[in-house]
Amino acid sequence: MPFVPQSSLAISRFFLERAKRDNVRDVTPMKVLKLVYIAHGWVLCFTDQPLLSEKIQAWKYGPVVPSVYHKFKEFGDSSIPFSVVESLPQLTTEDDQVADALAGVWNGYKGFTGIQLSSLTHQPNTPWYETWHASGGRDSRSAIIDNQTIRRHYCDLLKQADDTAKSQ
After folding, report:
1. Which distant-in-sequence residues (6+ apart) come within 8 Å of 64 by Cβ?
2. Rounded mean pLDDT of 17-34?
């Protein structure tokens, strides 16, 4: 049974709670924004269902989840205080596959800075790059990055990782 897409702010809360638990203090607005986007991509790949109830937009500086951007922009390039967590909604799903994917994203990407995560999402052939450059996103304010494009990208990353593991 498909799960109900989640609030991007609830996904943000998940990552901020993990950061607090693991004493990771460099969760800036850019980092949480990219973690939410990356989690959306991996959940799309694993479940063929969107994690987020909100569309991802292609902005000049990368993929953006508008509500996450607007909620945390006041912190600029500083870390988001853990005290903000209590003001965020909680996840409304108990889907094990989603929980595993979110934990996997946290464990796999928590060591990256926001700038490093941003760099990952800006490379050629990424969904943002395709939308911004190839599909004319730069000519349209807030162009939507299609979920199937995001899904395909993350499934391709999974296949590449599987192929690399098999060849070793």
Report:
1. 33, 37, 56, 57, 58
2. 97
Rg (CA), the chain: 15
**69 vs 72: CA distance, rounded Å:** 6
Residue 59 one-letter amino acid = W
HEC assignment per residue over the chain: CCCCCECHHHHHHHHHHHHHHHCCCCCCHHHHHHHHHHHHHHHHHHHCCCCECCCCEEECCEEECHHHHHHHHHHCCCCCCHHHHHHCCCCCCCCHHHHHHHHHHHHHHCCCCHHHHHHHHHCCCCHHHHHHHHCCHHHCCCEECCHHHHHHHHHHHHHHHHHHHHHC
**Domain coordinates of the chain in residue numbers?**
8-167
pTM: 0.93
> CB-based contacts of 70: which residues, under 8 Å, 6+ apart?
none
pLDDT digits over 92-109, tens only?
A: 888 888 889 999 999 999
Round to whole Å and give the CA distance between 153 and 119: 15
| Burial tier of 139 (Cβ tally within 10 Å: 0-12, 13-18, 19+) | exposed
